[in-house]
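Researcher: Here's the sequence for the chain we discussed earlier.
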Amino acid sequence: MTRIARLFERLRQADHRALVAYLTAGDPTPGHTPALVAALEAGGADLVELGVPFSDPIADGPVIQRASERALQAGTTLPRVLASVRQIREHSQIPLIVFGYLNPILRYGFARFAADAAAAGVDGALLTDLSVEEAGPYVNQMRERGLDTIFLAAPTSTGHRLELVARYSTGFVYLVSRTGITGEQDRVSDAVEPLVRRMRAATRLPLAVGFGVSRPEHLTELEPLVEGVVVGSAIVRVIEQHGAAADLENKLREFTAHLKAGFRGVHGPVGLAR
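Model: Thanks. This is the structure I predict for it:
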């Protein structure tokens, strides 16, 4: 059982939900990343997605695009992200996901990436632009190294696509709350509940909702429906606003705790009728 599977099983038994926190690795510098992950964990994050900066982040909104630019300018590469994971593992066992785009992983090589990621202490990966229909070679390499593969399901996904996502996903399924790019929104999309119903019919894996989730009240609203909630742009904005401050880690820890307070505690089975 992977760290991710153990996390969701522990939370299920406690009737709690996972706060999945995203940050762009290397923003504002590669040296900051381990301490920022520690701040997220101290604030209550249960799982961290480490974004690999990329020059053409087509799924990301302006906040994360700017973070990728800062990280690239600071010299962040995929090997440096994996080096940060090794540093994190000296002090923490929090589940870690490499979150990124296909091109850097393809250039690195699927087999090499899976081997090096596993050796560093990565638990899984999510490649936003990898078509699940063409994911077989990547998934096979990841499976050989015991790494989870997380895929995206969107409100526009066909029934066949949801079946493939269920087949190739391990750890959890990432539900995109709305079409378009990442970014903070005022309210949770009306498309979430129908998507949860459709995905529940295809898998019993934990479900986590992201894209547009940015406030404690969003966590409160989603808590009865899914096992996890993903927050990205709102966290990256804190880093952008306070990146030069001496108390950056404290600011991030406090904001994460503020978000986590949105989970009020629920009772009974999670989700809609299974």
